[in-house]
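Lay summary

Proteins are chains of building blocks that fold into shapes. Our project writes down both the chain and a compact code for its shape. Here are two examples, one after the other.
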Amino acid sequence: MTRAIDKKDKKRFSGAVLIIIGRIMLVLTLFGTGFLVARGANAIALVRPSFFFIVGYCFAIAGVRVASGVWSGSLQVLHQSAAISAVSLLACLLLGMRSHFAANRSAFWIVILLSLAMLISWLIRALPRNNKKSWWLGK
């Protein structure tokens, strides 16, 4: 009996480690990509972050599968990572706007709007299922 519990705990721990590594890679990649786009980087500079995004997402999906045994929570990891990177990117860009860097570029404002969209989509997804309809309709 205790041997089976030990194997389950090892699986959950290894899944949690994979989720943490994948989430860190996702957050840093989304943050870095947004920062590069806001600064006006070319398309060649965005190839490396896209590779790390794919690897980080694979780690996160594998972690969810190993830890829980189902695939159902894999999109939630992406939503949460996008929200965390959006908050940090918004803070960085808005603090940078105070020091007058790239505030006149259209890409800067597009990245800010996309960050807000990522944050709002995660907030809507994080609401409990039974309260979504009443919150959205105002009833």
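And here is the second example, written the same way.
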Amino acid sequence: MWGQRGWVTAAAVLVMLASGTPYSLSAYGEQLKLLLGYSQQTLDSISTLSTLGFFCAFVPGLLIDAKRLVISLLLAFSITTGTYVSLGGLIQSMASPSAWLIAPLYLMIGLGSIFMYMNSLTSALAVTEDRYRGTIVGILDACCTFSTFIFNSFFNALEAPTSSRFTNFFYSVAVITGVLNLLLLLVFLFSSKSKKHSELSVQESETMKVMEAIKSKPFQVLLWSQFFAGGAIIAFSSNVSSIGRSYRLSDKQQVSLSSTVFVSTSVSRVFFGVLSDFLASSVPRRRFLQFALIINCFVFGSLLISKTSSAVLVLAVILCGVSFGGFGSLYPTLVADVFPHYLFGSVWGWLQLATPIANIGYQKLYGSVYERYAFDDGKTCIGLRCYFLTFLISLVFSAIGVVIGFFFPKTTQEYSEIPQDINSPTIVLSPNEQSVSQSSLK
């Protein structure tokens, strides 16, 4: 019998399976660009806003740490469902809506998705034993990534004129995300127990500790390694379909290439999570992160010498998924390892800002270099020259990320001395289950 722990984890998994929809833009971006008449830079800017919204994890993180998970769950439902309905209606009612109308909606899509991600992750970690932490984080992050593959396949399977295809897709996503968000909300309300505590004193104590955590060496190492290496790999994965087109791949091959990123990422996240738990007594988790950072360099190094070889591109895409998967599994797990549970939402939320900030610069780089060598009003570019400079700069920055990653401290014992919040509410488990971690859920 599962008990409350099983129901919470299962609901979290289902929500994660619908939380990665912003990354579907990498699969249908080229078709959306042609439908709406946008330039490559405009498409890259929209993609950047979507990524920025998805990595604003500090917003739900602060709500969750302030004991306001119910509000965070309601916002996830309202933002995702409302935005997808608006996007579908906009494309249905207007032949070519302005990018100024579309771009803010993609920002909200990213924001709604990160609410779903953080709600699921914190809910599951609240009922997970420490020895299974990496495995659970890996599985949940894999579900988040695999959701992109699911929705990419769903979009590809739709048979309709282009505008109707997008409209049907967006309305369907609105229904699916709405139902799953409500499911997690109902499971949480059924499973949670509130405890009275002094909200003022908790907030004062946590504010001080959050600042202490941000100034710490582990946080800074995670922050800057993610800034340089994580930003590079996110930008690459967001531009896979455009890169495939410059390598003369067909539309279906571009979609398949994009899907390959997310399949390899999903497998990699589970792999890194399970293996880092299994070898925890002999191999520090930081070593796995350093390995993932090194793979990042191989992605861009192989592309620089490929001469538009489709085989090398496929290999680079698979390695991109391995590296990206390692980041997604290991970064939040290391945060949970080093810092107390009641600071997880805030610390992990602020840490994730590094990637979208870096991604803004990377996306500008991708767009400007692409359009410099493009024809057809900057919409089409063929050959390695479209991305050579971008790959070279990404390789240099990825190497910087590797160097920074090796400064992660050998021990984090001093951080385990920070007391847990004994007044924070917990998930109610069945009599034969004990709550194995304190959470900041309400």
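What can we say about the second shape? DSSP finds 17 helices and two strands in the chain.
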